[in-house]
Amino acid sequence: MASDGHISLRYQRPAESDMRVQAAKLLSEHQSRRSVRHFSCDPIPLDVLHDCIRAAGLAPSGANKQPWTFCVVTDPALKTQIRDAAEAEERAFYRGRAPQSWLDDLAHLGTDHNKPFLEEAPALVVLFAQNRGANGSKHYYISESVGIAAGFFISALHRCGLVTLTHTPSPMKFLGELLGRPASERAFLLLPVGYPASDCEVPDIERKPFAQICVGYHAGAK
Ligand code: IYR
Fold it and tell me: Does the structure show a pLDDT above 90 at 121?
């Protein structure tokens, strides 16, 4: 049945046994994903990165407005400019802008204002949220939509063997200026992308157990 600008959904229901195999595989893949702050300088295949962006661009969005722009930076001079500007903001953050309670919450990550990964990672992806469309048209649920696209992107990178970090030097206004983005766009995330450095370490952190993140409301259950 196809009518009124609609088409039939292409869908094949899998067997439950196959669903369980896929679910276990997906869970195990996600368990090995980590945010990385120490990158190898090795270049990455840009076509792989572009496919990850294509996959991210398939995310659902408010009224299908797709209110995102993915900027890919590999130019070393521009990466240096981004690092310098980000470190200036981060210096202000760590030296007073952040309340002590916030710094205490970050202590276990071992972060400071130094962001060498902004030059070392072979690609920086700057994800912008579009507050309005090119023709001034309205966009809806912008943060939700761009956040979902970012999640798709991070997941796609991981499946392709690349690592990243959801970096948010704050404020990120300098990114729009350095990349010449229109005033209707605001920087949402800065994601360095590449391979981990050979001696890369990550914080030894735990994830919340299932019972703490999921509450079930099932008929007949006591
Ligand atoms: N933007 C700073 C601080 C920072 C904030 C949070 I919330 C983190 O999860 C990690 C870091 C920085 O990148 O160092």
Answer: yes
State if residue 103 touches ligand 1 by the CB under 6 angstroms criterion.
Answer: no
Considering the domain boundaries, does residue 166 fall inside one? yes
* Mean pLDDT calculated for residue range 181-192: 98
Q: Best mutation site among 89, 109, 170 for ligand 1, i.e. most ligand atoms within 8 A of its Cβ?
A: 109
185 lines ligand 1 (CB under 6 A): no
In 80-174, beta strands by DSSP E = 123-130, 163-164
Minimal-distance CA residue to ligand 1 atom 8 = 106
Q: State the total domains in the chain.
A: 1
Atom of ligand 1 nearest to the CA of 98: 3
Indicate whether 96 belongs to any domain.
yes
State the DSSP string of 36-97: ---B------HHHHHHHHHHHTTS--GGG---EEEEEE--HHHHHHHHHHHHHHHHHIIIII
Residue 112 maps to a domain: yes
Q: How many angstroms separate the alpha carbon of residue 167 from the centre of ligand 1? A: 7
**pLDDT at res. 221:** 64
Structural domain contains residue 207: no
Q: Quick check: 149 pLDDT over 90?
A: yes
Which residue range(s) make up the domain with 188? Answer: 37-196
Q: What is the CATH number of the domain that holds 103?
A: 3.40.109.10
For ligand 1, the distance from its centroid to the CA atom of residue 113, given in whole angstroms, is 9
In degrees rounded to 5, what are phi and psi of residue 70?
Answer: -100, 115
pLDDT-derived band at 25, boundaries 50, 70, 90: very high
